Amino acid sequence: MDRYERFAVDERRWPGVARVPDGPLLGHRAELSRRAFRRALLGETDRDSAAAPDGEARDGASEVDGAAVVRGDIEVRDEAAMFRRVAEADWVGLGESYLAGEWESRDVPGVLARLLGSGLDVGPGGRVNRGLRRISGRRPVPRATRAGGELPASLIELYAGPTLAAGSALFASGARTTVLEDIPNQAQGAGRGGVPGTWKVDVTRIDAPEGVARRDLM
């Protein structure tokens, strides 16, 4: 296997991919990210992760010419850079690390499914880690409150904003028309003795739905 070489990235077009994050205490958060990653893919506990020295192969992992191969699913070529990105930007960081060539996999969808299914987090949400995030200048991201296949809150925030409002209203596509019509009065004696024979009522009709597919995306 050839030794790892970072992909050439245009810094002007892809500054986030070209730049490897650095900052106060980011190294400690990167270590928390590494442990969380191993828990997600290997089911390894913090105690297991701390028991083996850095760089030593653990169960399900091996070192091949400087690249860590985890269960044959993912090859981490630049562990330090990868977990710094994850520590700084969660899932965006993981994606940028992939684009930079710092990790690869023959089954990327499978790896992502396992990470999503495991509820991957970059570290414990306790007081110490919250303090590290504040010092390093990154705002804490709310975590999903329920399990069961839901997307992590940090992913939802990318397209829904800080409110995490992932849903949207569903509007009818048919044309709406409102007219004032005379409706027969069904009361007894209507039309006689001063009782109105009809009532003026606003009637709204909605045409059949129209196609709303984005043709430029089809």
Overview in brief:
35% of the residues lie in helices and 14% in strands.
Keywords:
218 residues; alpha+beta; four-stranded antiparallel β-sheet; rod-shaped
Furnish the topology, listing elements before pairings:
Elements: H1 15-18, H2 26-42, H3 46-51, E1 61-64, E2 67-70, E3 74-76, H4 79-99, E4 103-104, H5 108-118, H6 127-136, H7 153-160, E5 176-184, E6 198-206
Antiparallel strand pairs: 1-2, 2-3, 3-4, 5-6
Helix pairs in contact: 2-4, 2-5
Question: What share of the residues lie within helices?
Answer: 25-40%
Number of domain modules: 2
SSE topology string: HHHEEEHEHHHEE
Give the overall shape. rod-shaped
Give a count of the beta strands, DSSP E runs of length 2 or more. Answer: 6
Quaternary structure annotation: single chain
- The strand order across the widest sheet is 1-2-3-4
Radius of gyration: 29 Å
Beta-strand residue percentage: 5-15%
**What profile does the largest beta sheet have?**
4 strands, antiparallel
Secondary-structure class: alpha+beta
Number of helices: 7
C-alpha end-to-end distance? 41 Å
Descriptive overview:
The protein is an alpha+beta fold and 218 residues long. It has 2 domains: 15-143 and 150-160, no CATH class; 176-217, no CATH class. Helix content is 35%, strand content 14%. The protein contains 7 helices and 6 strands; from the N terminus they run αααβββαβαααββ. It has helices at 15-18, 26-42, 46-51, 79-99, 108-118, 127-136, 153-160; strands at 61-64, 67-70, 74-76, 103-104, 176-184, 198-206. It has a 4-stranded antiparallel beta sheet. A hairpin with a 3-residue loop joins strand 2 (67-70) and strand 3. The longest helix is centred in the middle third of the chain and has 21 residues, at 79-99. The two termini are 41 Å apart. The relative contact order is 0.11.
